[in-house]
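# nightly structure sweep
# worker-07 picked up a monomer target from the shared queue
# config: single-sequence mode, recycle default, output format = structure tokens
# input follows
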Amino acid sequence: MRQGSDGTAVIRFRAAGVSLLLAHLLLVGWLTLRPLDVPWMGASNLHPFAGIRADLSLGPVEAARRIGKGLLLLAPLGVLLPMAGGRLSVSPWASLARTVAAGALISTTIELAQTGVPGQVVDVDSLLLNTTGVAIAHLLVVPMCRARLRRRKQDRVGVLPHPRNEAGQGSTPTIPRVGIAP
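# output follows
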């Protein structure tokens, strides 16, 4: 890439992040907010970790499936939210805090919206699992990708000649000892 196309690359990167983020949120909305035709519904779970304990009592395979489903539902947000932000130089802790907070808010919104959907029940454990999934995905992917992109940007800048030196010209000459008029 040429030096002038860096801005275009960042805009394309952010646009891809926003597009993927919207597509993922539409998919999550369709999966979680569509009415289900079920013969009976369980009660809402408002006690933290009660649903996870119940899942663990079903055996390791079924527990892994149910807990994994909760962890993976919003996990892509851990990568897509920073990608849509498009910043390379940011504090890792601030980025993690912002991303996890946004993931928790989105998960809370989904859980509250499910109160009016037939066949869907509120589960506080899904809020915890969704938020944990966002945090894990962010920690596993974002710092490594940002470091790689920063290195690539530095390598690209180091290879390019300085704009002033493209035509073989040196720095601007100065005239020493020029007297000041009275």
